[in-house]
Each structure stands twice: as structure tokens, then as C-alpha cells.
Amino acid sequence: MAVSARRATVIDGKAVAAERRADLAKRVAALKADHGLTPTLAVFLVGDDPASAIYVRNKGAAAAAAGIRVIDVKLPATASEADLLARVGVMNGDPAVNGILVQLPLPKTIAADAVIDALDPAKDVDGLHPENIGRLAAGRDGLVPCTPRGCLILLERTLGTLDGRRALVVGRSNLVGRPAAQLLLRANCTVTIAHSRTRDLAAECRRAEIVVAAIGRSEFVRGDWVAPGATVIDVGINRVTGSDGKDRIVGDVAFAEVVEVAGAITPVPGGVGPMTIACLLENTYEAACRQRGLELDQ
Ligand code: GUN
After folding, report:
1. CA trace torsion 125, 128, 134, 136 (10° rounding)
2. Which of 115, 118, 123, 190 has the fewest CB atoms below 10 angstroms from its CB?
3. Where exactly does CATH 3.40.50.720 map onto the chain?
């Protein structure tokens, strides 16, 4: 029997993020006009990792475009942990600073956990402080990591309610996999977390109606792993050198294969990446409102 293949809907994260940033810019302007409050984000970049420098620059530009003030703190790779902790402490104590982001990875000489633990949880716009992780796990309000928050927004826009759906998260990082699983659980999915020790990853994938791929391995999730009609969210950002010698960015999902099978899929670039930035700005706005005791208008 001939079956006509239907390509997946490609989820336009760039457009969704642009819409949310435009909406946020209006709310930021209202916050300034009505309460004299300019949400302010301190961004720490330590060392000279080129990818981190690009991410930080993009975050800063997006914040400025939304009317959020950015305090850029750039430190050399030789900066000590004590120096970074002291500077984070200053931002914690400054009432004009509403959000603090320490770009990861940090140089090996600095313990990332110590720095994360030192953040004021109310200013932890990355949602990485143990208090925010605990709040998320307990289903309570708190700051939620930006990338998983962006994934959930795209899933809900694509599928409507996620109630009762079987979701597979591939990857268990603190930045993406674990919080994504918590958010899916909060949205009433039946959640499985797969990782490098999972026995039959392909079989786990085939059972899932939702796949969130966050493993950091180029084009790892293949077309024959994905159930027909599944929704696939690709969190990967991997730089690979093509046969033409040119570098390009690919995700954790073999897009050309999976787009032929899935119901919907995010592209790389232009899927989850722009949503991460939009959610960082929203977290900063929300942190500023909460610190002032203002009701969130969304
Ligand atoms: N490095 C890669 N992604 C992120 C992120 O979302 N937040 C921080 N702080 N560092 C990152």
C-alpha cells in the first residue's frame, strides 16, 4: 500500500520569540512609566570561550532592545573564584540589579556550583540555584531555567494541552534535561528521562509523543527512532565541519530524516535558541516585579 509521506510542521521559534520580546518590551515600558522601574540584568562572562562570548553578546542586545538595562561584567580566564564570588555578592546586595546571569561554562579553576550557590535565588534568572530547582521540583513558583521554559512554550503552542502525553527527555543536565522533565511533569505529561546509560534509547524514543533532545551530540536522534506524528524539540547547538570544509551549526536531531516522520520539529538554528533568550528577558522582568512586590501582569 502506498503511503503518502507528509513532512512535519517546522516550529518557528524565531518568530515566537520575536513576538514575545515585542510583547515584553511593552510591559517593560509600562513598568518604567508606572513604577519608575527599569529591569536590570547583570551578566558575567569569565574567560574567552568564543561561543559564550557570542551568546552573551546576543543576550545583551536582546535585553537592550526590550528596554532592559544590562550590566556587563567581563573577567579574564585567570580571575579567581573568590573574585567572582565577591562580585556576585555586590550584585546580590544592589537593589538596582534584578537579575544575575553567570555564563557557563566557567574556567576549570572556578567551581560553578559554588558560584551558583552564592546567587540570590530571587535574582537567579537562570533558575539554577538549589532553591529554584527545589521550587520547580515541588511544583512551586520560582525562577525556571530559560531553555526548558522556552521548550514548554513551543510545545504548548504546537500541541495545546500536554495533559497525559508520553514525553521523553534525552539528557539530564541541570541546565536543560532535568528542569525540562520537571516542567513536562508539571504540565501532566508522563515523563521518561533518558541519558548516556539508557539501554535502548531508540526504543524509548519510539514510544514517545514528545521528544526533547538535549544531549549535545550532533544529529544523534535518527529518523527511524521517532514515532510518526511525534513532536520533536531539538535543544542541541553543535558546530560541525561539513565536507565542503565550512562550519555549520546542527542540532541533536538528524533534521533531514526526522522532518519526514515527525508531526512537528524545531529547526537548528531558529528553534529553541531564540526562545532561550526571550525567556531570559521574561525571567528578568518577572524577577524585577517580584522584588518590588508587584503583581505579574502575565
Ligand atoms: N551556557 C549555555 N547555556 C546557558 C544558559 O542558559 N545560561 C548560562 N548561564 N550559561 C549557559
Report:
1. 50
2. 190
3. 145-273
pLDDT greater than 90 at residue 296: no
Contact of 84 with 75, CB cutoff 8 Å: yes
The catalytic residue among 126, 182, 234, 252 is 126
Closest Cα to residue 173, out of 110, 107, 238, 127? Answer: 127
d(CA 264, CA 88): 41
Give residue 101 CA to ligand 1 midpoint distance, Å: 8
Q: 233 Cβ partners below 8 Å, 6+ apart?
A: 11, 151, 154, 155, 210, 211, 212, 213, 265, 266, 271, 272
Helix (H/G/I), strand (E/B), else coil: 120: coil
53-78 tens-digit pLDDT: 999 999 999 999 999 999 999 999 99
The answer to whether 31 touches 289, Cβ cutoff 8 Å, is yes
Model pLDDT for residues 204-230, shown as the tens digit of each residue: 999 999 999 999 999 999 999 999 999
Percent pLDDT > 90 in the chain is: 96
Tell me the sheet residues that pair with 239. 249
Question: Range(s) for CATH 3.40.50.10860 in the chain?
Answer: 36-120
Whether 59 is catalytic is yes
The pTM is what? 0.96
Superfamily holding 36-120: Leucine Dehydrogenase, chain A, domain 1 (3.40.50.10860)
Residue among 88, 84, 99, 128 at smallest CA distance from 40: 99
Q: Is 182 a catalytic residue?
A: no
Q: pLDDT tens across 129-182, in order?
A: 999 999 999 999 999 999 999 999 999 999 999 999 999 999 999 999 999 999
Q: What is the pLDDT of residue 5?
A: 60
**Length of the chain in residues, anyone?**
298
Instruction: Tell me the fold of 145-273.
Output: Rossmann fold (3.40.50)
